[in-house]
Amino acid sequence: MSQLTEPRERRRRSDGERSRQAILRGATELATLQGLEGLSIGGLAAHIGMSKSGLYAHFGSKEELQLATIEAASEIYIREVIAPARDAERGLPRLVALMDHWLDYLRREVFKGGCFFDAARSEYDSRKPGPVRDAIAADFRSWKELVANRVRAAQAAGHLDPEADPEQVAFELDALGGAANVRFQLDRDEIAFERARRAIHARLDALTVH
């Protein structure tokens, strides 16, 4: 009897995980269009064509849904931006690859309403601390630290000026990409991404050790 029950249980868990992932894909899309605060069990149920009771089986509250959505968006960001850049050679090539994959992710609008995290930061930057705002802030800190660490790695490899401040360089690179995304979201001007790419490459070229 147990041999029959165990596969059935595994299938049930597998089906439940696929359902959860499908829900979260819809949630990330809806959040970029309506904001994380606009994300609700009822609204999401209507968006993906599922009953509210079905959603409640996965998420017991709006906050739980919001936090799971942020985590799902982070996994997509890692897959689309961070992981592909790891294939590049260590040092400056990997930093350049990270920036190029990031700009490409923004241009392709992996999330229907633009970058999930840019939208979330704009939505929550002036809100009081809480679990959702804290999760967004933690993701942003991780991104800033990653870029700064990629700069440090390029310096350690002898590719970039060792006297440059990694935090300052990371700030400038992030600002250039962020400005391009704002221009694109407002004007649908894809040239903004090429301008940002040229500016980022020029900034890194100026720091390159020849």
Topology:
Layout: H1 2-34, H2 41-48, H3 52-56, H4 62-85, H5 92-108, H6 116-124, H7 131-156, H8 166-187, H9 191-207
Any idea what the radius of gyration is? 20 Å
User: How many strands in all?
Assistant: 0
CATH homologous superfamily grouping: Tetracycline Repressor, domain 2
Quick one: overall form?
A: elongated
Biggest beta sheet attributes: none
Please state the second-level CATH architecture. Answer: Orthogonal Bundle
Residues in helices, as a percent range: over 70%
CATH class: Mainly Alpha
Note poorly predicted spans.
Answer: none
Q: Give me the secondary-structure category.
A: mainly alpha
Tally of individual helices: 9
End-to-end CA span:
71 Å
Order of helices and strands: HHHHHHHHH
User: What's the mean pLDDT score?
Assistant: 89
Q: What name does CATH use for the topology?
A: Tetracycline Repressor, domain 2
**What share of residues are in beta strands?**
under 5%
The tally of structural domains comes to 1
